[in-house]
Design brief:
Number of strands: 22
Distance between the termini: 45 Å
Radius of gyration: 26 Å
Helix content: 25-40%
GO molecular function: ATP binding; ATP hydrolysis activity
Largest sheet: 6 strands, mixed
Keywords: ATP-binding, Nucleotide-binding, Transport
Bound molecules: adenosine-5'-triphosphate
InterPro entries: AAA+_ATPase, ABC_SmlMolc_Importer, ABC_transporter-like_ATP-bd, ABC_transporter-like_CS, Mo/tungstate-bd_C_term_dom, P-loop_NTPase, Transp-assoc_OB_typ1
Protein name: ATP-binding cassette domain-containing protein
Number of helices: 12
Length: 414
Amino acid sequence: MSGAAGASGADAGSHRDRPRAAASRAAGPHGLDARIEVHRGGFAAHAELQVAPGEVLALIGPNGAGKSTLLAALAGLVPLDAGEVRLGGRLLEGRVDRSDGASRPLRLPPERRRIGLLQQDAGLFPHLSVLENVAFGARAQGVRRGHARAEAARLLDAVGLGGSGGGRPAELSGGQRQRVAIARALAARPELLLLDEPFASLDVEAAGEIRALLAGILVADRIPAIVVSHDVIDAIVLAGRIAVVEQGVIVEQGTTHGVLQAPRTPFAASIAGFVLVPGTAADGVLDTPAGTFASTEPAGFTGPGVALFRPGRVRVVDAAGAAPASAPVAGGRPRGAEAASAPRPVRAPNRWEARIAALRPAPGGVRLRLAVDAGAFVDAELDARAAEELRPAPGARVLCTIDPADVALHPAAG
Ligand SMILES: Nc1ncnc2c1ncn2[C@@H]1O[C@H](COP(=O)(O)OP(=O)(O)OP(=O)(O)O)[C@@H](O)[C@H]1O
């Protein structure tokens, strides 16, 4: 793989060396500005997507959230039910005002949108040579055959496949095929690139090389892009901004750094390696179905919020040998007979009792899925030593605690 790795380094340089091509590809001063409303069977997606020239947006979310549907709507593969798509100031889909004051619908077909779509499957034409596959991208934009072939050769060189143009796609590895797909997309001079899990079928090494190759191209050519991925590395390496999609709507968005440091939704928290407990903030603490959470930095807000912490910071002990989770805090309400008529005791903050619902491996230890209340889960992780001491088993009851210094409280998304 060393040759390919070297080639991708050379590629980044070759892209930096062609500022004219870059200027012609960037989506003008406007980038993408889209308002999408789409129905697919019983599923509905509503989202606003803006991507500035030179910006990469990562769309993340659980399976079936509607990420691919949003990309398909932008690419013109699925019609909008309402809204509009503008790219570089051009209207690709929506309504155009008429001179009589009314408006008419406009919907450009995919090949006239100047939008490149890269998917998990490179989707090359098996009967065409590698060079012809790439030249096809330019030919589709009306470039004459000779120029298209010259441009294809240059782009194949840029993606580290100079000299491979005469072969057929079947003779290439998965990573090489994806490089050809990138070259073909660039040959069409896209004003927007849509990347739908383009590395998902590649091994870790090939994915890393192609990710770096794409990152270099996107930076050098300032092509706005949207990448859909389940892999947080794609967001970190490629994207400056993240939007979290759930059930067809964007539930959280922000800079990649901001979302990964302080996620506000369970999905973003899971990819950022946090446990997120939703609740309601009052008096500086967060009340949740799993109990009260307090931080050394009290919540400076009231209303819906989240408690965030790293699962490895949770201390987990066998509930049988521990004081009950509902033990009153110091200075709290009385115990015993008096307590029977008293209101429910105030639960100590950062302390919850749970049943182990499931176990799965975690780096250096084990992850515990902990069922706290009907439908509420608050996970924890044990390193190998703590796991050996506790010997966790599904169904066992445990008592969990966490230091306020390890807890952050934030307002909920939206
Ligand atoms: N061709 C189709 N016809 C009808 N419904 C569809 C079609 N494609 C997708 N859907 C529905 O649209 C919803 C969103 O699917 P979509 O593929 O956009 O989600 P996704 O977030 O990309 O999921 P994944 O991460 O699993 O790829 C799903 O409920 C799915 O069943």
